[in-house]
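Hey L., structure's done. Input below.
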Amino acid sequence: MVRTTTLTAKDKEKIGRLFGSINRSKNIAKGATKETVTVRENAYTEQQLDEAWYRFSNTIPEHPDLHFVFGTAPAKEANKLTASVDNFVVFNKLNDIKPQLQRYLSDAVGNDTLSIEFHFIEGKKKPTTPREKARAMNESNGNLMKLFTTWGLRLT
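Output:
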């Protein structure tokens, strides 16, 4: 079974504009001159990198909720930095500012080969309701259940 679709004049115009922009992009790419990019690979110490990591929070005053992340040095393996967070909102914000952080650290130590990764670690969900809090307290202290039963309270 073969389907046929008729195109309206508006559809043909859109397709023409699309192909026109693609052709212009190709022509621009062909005419572009090649630029040489210099990659800095200067040697640096862990201390220099850690100091730059700690100072980065001063460059993001609009994100005070992220400052705690930069209070602890990241794990390092060769030129790869890794930091773990247990808050998904913070994880997303860190990934948003990652290019800015990478540029800052690269400039601070004069090395463009640094890479940064953030890992989201799901932590144990914190109790929020009074019932969840009572259960959590009971798990940490078995004598609490005796107190509840003495007072005639139930955890359901």
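The first strand starts at residue 75 and ends at 77. The mean pLDDT is 81.

-- N.
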